[in-house]
Amino acid sequence: MPRAQGHSSGGQAQAKNGIVVDMRGLNGIDAVQSEHVVVGAGARWSEVLRATLSHGLTPPVLTDYLELSVGGTLSVGGIGGTSHRSGLQTDNVAELEIVTEEDELRTCSRTRDSDLFDAVLGGRGRHGTIIRATLRLIPAKTCTRRYKLYYRELSPLLADQCLLVEDGRFDHIEGHARFADSGEWIYAMVLATHFDPGEEPDDAALLGRLGHESAEIDDMGCFDFLNQMEDDEAYLRSTGAWEQPHPWLDLMLPGSAAEDFIVETMRKLVLDDIGESGLVLFYPFHTRVITTPRVRVPAEPRAFLFSLLRTAPHDEVVVSRLVESNRELRQRALSLGGTVYLEHAESP
User: Fold this and answer.
1) Where does the record place a coiled coil (predicted)?
2) HSE-up (13 A, CA, CB side) for residue 42
3) What string of H, E and C letters represents the secondary structure of 235-302?
4) What is the pLDDT of residues 137-156, one digit of tens each?
5) How far apart are CA 174 and CA 22, in angstroms?
6) Residue 97 has what pLDDT?
7) Is residue 230 classed exposed, middle or buried when 0-12, 13-18 and 19+ CB atoms within 10 A define those classes?
């Protein structure tokens, strides 16, 4: 089983009675070209982004946490705040170099050995080991304006997210919720638009027709915005929460059922279900832009990512309870036509 940074959510990068191959040494990044870059499977996305931004280019989709390996996210999909426009990271791969189960080194793409290409992308490492990947690049801006919009209720936030996905006015769209010290939910939508100096965005136009209660607006460099989890990681490591169990659940919900599912689920959650450093993540995307065959999405034009990013104590009873809760939510989502992201390939 190939493994680089080891951030799988349920031990998928382990191999019971098998062999785990450390991929971190395959981290080379070739010369950046005008439309693509060739990188080793063990390269971290932060390294790729630094290399491409120096040429005014960026991958179209990046996950929130950039210290994941290229091979790791390409083995599961790779979703982020720009997925409403550009799909998954796996949808933006031009070519792969792979070692197959038969120990053959092969090169594949959508037009060359396409069956192997489609089997490996999102294939959880079960159909071959990614050695190198040719990634598509697009022009990058130098600055980012980030908008944090706060809502009193969840439903208006979800409705605004759907509006923004349809009209496409923002480059980046996400939403999250966490518990305040008061025990109440704090609902926030995080939006961003990228720009160059002298082309500052029109805040009034971008925020028109949205129903938020308050807003925080700030400017930063593009890399700083895309790598903003660096500070979160440092904080979580300092508190010890980074090393605690994280029984996460990542669902893709059909648009027609998403609001009821999300609102009802969150209504029942208490702080102990998420943890003091836990977070709930949610945002919509067009399913038509996700073309990776191995990544299953709901059979509707629009779907929602809904993630319970739980942090649990080192307590087997608590972890087992949260895992069982995840199992129940998973079954309910599947019954509504949803799918599960970041799950074992064997799961139905």
Assistant:
1) none
2) 11
3) HHHHHCHHHCCCCCEEEEEEHHHHHHHHHHHHHHCCHHHHCCCCEEEEEEEEHHHCCCCCCCCCCCCE
4) 999 999 999 999 999 999 99
5) 32
6) 96
7) middle
Burial 118-135 (b: 16+ CB within 10 A, else e): bbbbbbbbebbbbbbbbb
Closest CA to 90 of 108, 77, 71, 109: 77
Quote the tokens at residue 71: 């091979």
* Each residue's pLDDT tens digit, 10-61: 665 665 666 677 666 678 999 999 999 999 999 999 999 999 999 999 999 9
Query: Residue 220 belongs to what H/E stretch?
Result: strand 214-221
Tokens 């599961």 belong to 76
Predicted local confidence at residue 102, as pLDDT: 85
Contact 62, 52 (CB under 8 A): no
DSSP per residue, 43-93: -BHHHHHHHHHTTTEE-S---S-TTSBHHHHHTT----TTHHHH--GGGGE
Burial class (CB in 10 A: 0-12, 13-18, 19+), 301: exposed
Identify residue 312 by its one-letter amino acid code. A
φ, ψ (nearest 5 deg) of residue 265: -60, -45
Question: What is the residue type of 161?
Answer: Q
Largest CA distance in the chain: 59
Residue with tokens 């396409």: 114
Token digits of residue 334: 């599947």
Domains of the chain: 2-139 (3.30.465.10), 143-340 (3.40.462.10)
